[in-house]
Design brief:
mainly alpha, globular
Length: 536
């Protein structure tokens, strides 16, 4: 019963902020309500870590033929790290948003952040596929409305339509996997996903994460740097990552051609996204590539039958990324705080992501393993680049903001450390130390090349003066077009256009002056074909 109480607490706090601010606006009251509710939920999930696993189910729904199982919530070792990470992000957003407390829209933004967290908690804590399906529909609707309201112009309407189409396809894939699983195991839970349903669930998660096939979310938004906007971008990712962590072993045979193709495509998507992450204009512009790269790592772990190891990459996506993306506005004196986020992504022995190498690198050293090692090094280089390029100076902060702003970042860092020490049994491991050394060596080599060029050229023009810059830029764009299947979509659109043109031509012929004559000709042909097939 504790699980739904924590979710209801967040929803009640969001409603209280909205109502109280509408009746009698007071920013300090709204901020305190948001902060206290988020901190209580954060502490509550850490206490629940001592009692895992936990579950909560509603009474059975009617009719039984339609609803095989009642909606339920479950907290276990697979989704607990994501629940804590999401609530940590929410709390950090409220703490760091104190620098924008002078804005009239801040209370509404805090209420939205808490509500978004609560709804996404339902999705990642879903104990059965039906609950997850309902949660995804609500989450997608909220995200679509937010993107539609914050778009800068109508040029992104086509992208919004594509975004919603992909989300609908993911729900359809989840429904197909649910029906397939029910055939072999009626009323199965997320902790007992049948092997036959695994590929459908992987496709559903891959579509939402933008990996299978490669697709980028809409970025034409006016508030992409604000904490609540960042939360609405990262929170929906958590439920998809939790689904990947629940995937069963052996859902796709290692000997199958599909398994090999998916491994190569996923590793290629990780390499492309990490390269684009490194070359982005800013960390906020490169956020989609950060998500795709680390989500590709998580999917690779599932394809290698080590879905449980995907948790480290998912937590790194949310928390290490959260430290970097929430460092806005930048303050030079605490510029070291974003660098502490490397604890979660470095994959060095006995750090949070050290165990992630077991899911990425199996016994055989393949092409996908090379891609993944390069991708990890590029991610580290990009993280270092954005951390050191932050050089702004902010003045005029209120006294409370000078304390709460760094506290929000410190909260994320300490959560990374706690999860890395006691997130689940076996989380503290040395991992594949040689992979860490290879990635670290590649990172050092890349950093040395970058600094060597930066000593001779202005920092802003270093990327454009790299060897074969234009060639690599063209190659990356072509790579994106291939992985995103845009060529397939264009071919299908052309084919449908040809069918439409043929149908329009036939319609004009039959509706014209000779339409009756052509109808008689077609009728005569059909009669002839029919009679030719009749034996006397």
């Amino acid at each position: 019963m504790v699980i739904p109480l924590l979710i209801l607490l967040l929803l009640a706090a969001s409603a209280a902020i909205t109502v109280s601010h509408a009746v009698k606006p007071k920013v300090s009251r709204a901020w305190m309500i948001a902060l206290i509710s988020a901190l209580v939920a954060w502490l509550g999930f850490f206490v629940l870590r001592l009692y895992l696993p936990l579950s909560f189910a509603l009474p059975p729904w009617k009719p039984d033929v339609l609803f095989i199982s009642a909606p339920s919530l479950e907290l276990n070792y697979q989704n607990w790290p994501y629940a804590v990470s999401l609530v940590t992000l929410c709390t950090a957003v409220i703490l760091t948003d104190s620098t924008r407390s002078f804005l009239p829209s801040s209370p509404n933004a805090w209420a939205s952040a808490i509500a978004i967290t609560a709804v996404n908690l339902i999705g990642l804590l879903a104990g059965d596929p039906v609950t997850l399906m309902f949660a995804w529909v609500v989450i997608d609707t909220i995200e679509f409305v937010h993107l539609y309201q914050t778009r800068l112009d109508r040029s992104s309407d086509a992208g919004l339509a594509a975004f919603m189409s992909i989300r609908i396809l993911s729900v359809i894939a989840l429904a197909a996997g649910t029906v397939t699983g029910w055939l072999s195991m009626p009323a199965f839970g997320m902790a007992q996903i049948p092997q036959k349903a695994g590929i459908y669930f992987l496709l559903a998660a891959g579509l939402r994460l933008g990996v299978l096939p490669l697709n980028l979310p809409v970025q034409n938004s006016r508030d992409s740097k604000h904490g609540s906007a960042l939360l609405i971008r990262l929170a929906p990712v958590a439920s998809s990552l939790a689904l990947i962590a629940h995937l069963p072993q052996g859902f796709l045979s290692d000997a199958s051609g599909l398994h090999t193709v998916l491994l190569i495509l996923t590793a290629a998507a990780a390499l492309y996204a990490s390269a684009m992450w490194l070359s982005g204009k800013s960390q906020h512009k490169a956020l989609p590539y950060w998500i795709i790269a680390l989500a590709s790592f998580a999917i690779t772990c599932a394809l290698n039958d080590r879905a449980e190891t995907s948790r480290v990459w998912g937590v790194a996506l949310l928390l290490s990324g959260g430290v970097l993306f929430l460092f806005d506005p930048p303050i030079r004196r605490i510029r070291f705080l974003p660098l502490l986020g490397l604890i979660g992504i470095s994959a060095l022995p006995f750090t949070l992501s050290a165990g992630g190498w077991d899911g990425l690198l199996t016994g055989k050293f393949t092409l996908s393993a090379v891609f993944l090692l390069l991708s990890h090094a590029l991610l580290l280089l990009g993280f270092l680049r954005y951390s050191f390029e932050i050089s702004g100076t902010v003045t005029g902060l209120e006294k409370h903001a000078r304390i709460t702003y760094p506290l929000g970042l410190i909260l994320i860092v300490q959560t990374i450390i706690i999860i890395g020490l006691a997130g689940w049994p076996g989380v503290l491991t040395a991992g594949k130390w040689w992979a860490s050394l290879v990635s670290l060596a590649l990172t050092g080599l890349g950093a040395g090349l970058y600094l060597k060029l930066a000593a001779k050229l202005p920092l802003a023009s270093v990327a454009a003066n790299l060897p074969l810059y234009r060639f690599w830029t063209l190659l990356l764009k072509s790579f994106q077009q291939f992985l995103s299947l845009q060529w397939l979509y264009k071919a299908l659109a052309w084919l449908m256009g040809q069918f439409g043109a043929l149908a329009a031509l036939l319609n004009r012929v039959l509706d014209g002056e000779g339409g009756i004559l052509w109808s008689l000709v077609f009728l005569a042909v059909l009669i002839t074909l029919f009679l030719s097939g009749v034996k006397p």
